[in-house]
Amino acid sequence: MSNNNKKYLIAPSILSADFARLGEEVEKVLASGTDWVHFDVMDNHYVPNLTIGPMVCAALRKYGVTAPIDVHLMVKPVDRLVGDFIEAGATNITFHPEASEHPDRTLQAIRAGGCQAGLVFNPATPLNWMDHVMDKLDLVLLMSVNPGFGGQKFIPQTLNKLREARQKIEASGRNIRLQVDGGVGVHNLAEIAEAGADTFVAGSAIFGAAQATDPHRYDSIVKAMREQLAPFEK
After folding, report:
1. Which residues participate in catalysis according to the annotation?
2. Distance between CA 33 and CA 48 in Å, rounded?
3. pLDDT at 168 over 50
4. How many domains, the chain?
5. Which pLDDT value is given to residue 233?
6. What CATH code is carried by the domain that includes residue 25?
7. What is the pLDDT of residue 1?
8. How far apart are CA 106 and CA 40, in angstroms?
9. Where are the alpha helices (DSSP H) in 40-93?
10. Within a domain: 18
11. What pLDDT, in 10s, does the model give residues 83-116?
């Protein structure tokens, strides 16, 4: 599948990081060669978990993190937090269309605030939401697990959905990234890329695979991920 010759991006999800040392964790995982910092924002309402808010995003910016911060809103309603995360220094903001009263308006608000905007699709959510807002999308995120918790196994049907999403993006002629989140690791990165993804969220596969006492603990796992992606970047 074509990916418009884009660079493949790795976005470690800080949901799996050590929150007692979050600034240091983010600094080290970026130094290992990752690209974005992925924020899983959960509200114990839209999803059955409660995680982090805009204060953590602002704190990382204050700490000195300059890499793109990729905010995935698993909240309902979404619009208030969109503004808060824009102010906190987010780079990208994605949300679930069924969690917004007016997805088109929410996408407009994200872009008006200077961030890139995207929609997120749960495993059973159809992709036809994309068709009506293609001109306002910078990225599309497919969940390959049901949202709410880290460490779940990849749902294989996501590969077919990735192919369908890639076809829609290619047909639009627009520069839209196709991201996947859930159960992503070295073992399945190649088949996910083959199906059309170009941006990969990984939490436990990165943060859970390293020894906390090793100052270069993320280097080997990120290197292994890059090796899996290398054939697709030629």
Report:
1. 40, 181
2. 32
3. yes
4. 1
5. 84
6. 3.20.20.70
7. 40
8. 18
9. 54-63, 79-88
10. yes
11. 999 999 999 999 999 999 999 999 999 999 999 9
